[in-house]
Amino acid sequence: MTWNHSAYINEARGAVHTGDGTQVNLYLQALSASLREQTRQRPRTVAKDDRERLYQCFVPPGRFQRARQVLRAHHTVLLSGRPGSGLRTAALMLLHELPEAGGSFHELPDTVDDGSSSPFDNGAINGGDRLLVDLSGADETRFLEIQNQLSDFREKLIGEGAHLTVVLPHHLGYLLRSDLRPLTAEIERPPARRVLTVHLRHDSIAPSDAELDTPELTAYLARAPLRDVADLSDRISRNRDRMGTEEGFPRWLSDALAMVTDQTARVAGDLSTRHTGTRRALLLALAMFHDTAPATVFSASTALLGVLRHPPDERPRLEHNDFKAELREIGAETHPSGHVRFSEIGYDRAVRDHFWTYLPDLRLQLCDWIGKHLEGMALSQKERDQVIARFSEQGLRTGRPEDLLRLATRWTGQNAPLRLMPDAARVLANGLGDDRYGRFFRQQIYDWSKNAELSQGLKRVLVLVCTDVMAQTHPDQAMVRLHHLARRERGPAGVAAQRSLLAMVRGDNRLYRLLLSRLNTEMTGSHGEADAALFLAMADPTRLIKSASVCAALVSGWAGILRQWPWERWQPDADRWLTACEDDHHRDPVLDVLVTACAGDSSTLGSLYRVARGWARARTDHTSVRTDTATGLLQKINSAQGFEPFGVSA
User: Fold this and answer.
1) How far is C-alpha 312 from the chain's CA centre?
2) DSSP label at residue 420
3) Nearest C-alpha neighbor of 294 from the set 264, 322, 315
4) Which DSSP symbol is given to 66?
5) Within a 13 Å sphere around the CA of 92, how many CA atoms are in the beta-carbon half?
6) What's the gap between Cα 322 and its chain centre?
7) Do 132 and 473 form a contact (C-beta atoms < 8 A)?
8) Which tens digits make up the pLDDT trace of 362-376?
9) Among 56, 266, 481, 619, which residue's CB has the most CB atoms within a 10 Å radius?
């Protein structure tokens, strides 16, 4: 390929908008459902519907029965085994098989949040809880710390009838304490062919034994991690849907295997015969922008040459080969759809793998190339998502998660176009979904959530990924991050964070308890005003109020508000709580919370009664009930001040 490199601008195809309101909301709303669906397809989620779907495809590994026995006898089981043996899935299924006993099913936090260095530091255990801790990526220090805290945690587990599964780090097995070894079950990898068959049948594909007995498939199944076996099944299913049933299973399988077959040796050989930098730039541009229009590949190749400061070819343009000839030289063809592809299936992935593996000094420049080029490219959202997924895969595969962060911050900077926010959200979602670096991204998002100096764009993106990605797999951590964003930001991002936070706790009693506890411990701090407002927005006068712990949290929250705010500010919320007293079942506990929160202070008690009298005098169909409520409140106020009713003696 021999031409001068220069800026290339294609036609605009995206939506045009000159403001920052409706348009960005449309961008983010369109992305939200997509992120949720992408997250649901990963085996990390603990949502009930996803667990049930996973259970339908689950093949019990060797020694699984031993793990069942340990869990049911000791309420805890530690799972060990070689990476790729399906340990996390086994841990989920062990808990899923247990009968529901009124508790929740959730994964304990794996990041350092608000000074907590252990997943066991986070709140109380509720009766019947089913808990998961994934330590597969833990370092030595963290693994030792968690073991030291596990004994005390187990006592609480047993007392509450809760159960815990722990995925151990295989590389740190030598550090496992001797007293924990009786709780350990070594999981053996299930037959990969059986796993593939079960997944295929779940998608209504039933190949014969002869169709599965190919040397290529046998070799692949012998070495592939189980998550890749499940991915192969998904590729086969998508090939069936794309090609139609007339092609048959052998063709679906061969194309799926071609996508995952290692072709790096062939790429290395091809590159050795293509000496020019322009030809190699075209090869990588097509690999990254595979299955797009020729103009898109041309533009990407030109931009790459510019980023790498490759010297231009000074010959006149008409002395160069045309672009179709250049594509033919690198083994590419133009599909009837008008898009350009490599002729060999899976070759694009092999090219990407080769460049990121064997030209490590170019990784930072490749990051800049993708970041800059996508800013100006007129691609469909599907094409953009594919490019971002390919870049994310390479960055994570080669141990460079910081490159994904670089793109996210670039696309959400102060001067970045709003249309890039979905791209930033997608790249962070890819990082959060990675088995090896998911914890890295959760920790980074926590650090970001406490930084008030972030750009508005990045804050909006953080709210989105916390709500639609992290909340599906790690709801506790998502709640913490949304809380920090809600209390530090008064603009649109803060409103969105509060809205998402309230929606999370509205449907989950465990998270409701946790957030009440967080607000009560921090309401007097530097963000006390924001926490007090959040407390009033979420605290429900009828929800779990008869629970001792919830009642205590409500009393503490109201006490903080009554101490800080003049009565005119809390009157509307007090009216709402008093209205709940129109139901006799709630009257006493609601009034007890409000009176106890006054802590015997006569001035505050007087303000509360004055508000109640005004509420009772309002025109309503429940006037008599309201009068009785105000009378009952007065009696409780008198009792709190030590004034017993007339005729009662000590």
Assistant:
1) 44
2) G
3) 322
4) H
5) 25
6) 46
7) no
8) 999 999 999 999 998
9) 481
CA distances from 242 to 147, 235, 239, 245, 395 (A): 49, 10, 5, 9, 29
Rounded CA gap, 444 and 431, in Å? 11
Residue type, 219: A
User: pTM of this prediction?
Assistant: 0.87
**Between the CA of residue 174 and those of 168, 171, 193, what are the distances in Å?**
11, 8, 31
Query: 368, 377, 363, 382: which is closest to 306 by C-alpha?
Result: 368
SS3 146: helix
Number of H helices, E strands in the chain: 31, 7
On whether the CB atoms of residues 304 and 281 are closer than 8 A, the answer is: yes
Q: For CATH 3.40.50, list the domain ranges present in the chain.
A: 60-186
Q: Which of 429, 366, 426 is nearest to 400 (CA)?
A: 366
Q: Which helix (H) or strand (E) holds 163?
A: strand 163-167
Phi, psi of 534, rounded to the nearest 5 degrees: -65, -40
Query: Which ranges of 57-191 would DSSP assign to H, the alpha helix?
Result: 64-74, 87-97, 140-160
> Residues 620, 626, 627, 633: is their CA dihedral positive or negative?
negative
Query: What sign for the dihedral angle of Cα 245, 250, 254, 256?
Result: positive
CATH class, 60-186 region: alpha beta
Which pLDDT value is given to residue 580?
96
Cα gap 346→230, rounded to integer Å: 18
Backbone angles phi and psi of 187, in degrees to 5:
-90, 135
- Sign of torsion, CA 101 106 112 117? positive
* Residues 175 and 140 sit within 8 Å (Cβ to Cβ): yes
Q: What is the DSSP string of 543-564?
A: SSTTSHHHHHHHHHHHHHHHHH
> CA–CA distance from 512 to each of 317, 357, 412, 464, 543 (Å)?
66, 46, 31, 20, 10
Q: What's the N-to-C CA distance of the chain in angstroms?
A: 102
- Spatial contact of 275 and 332, defined as CB atoms under 8 Å apart: no
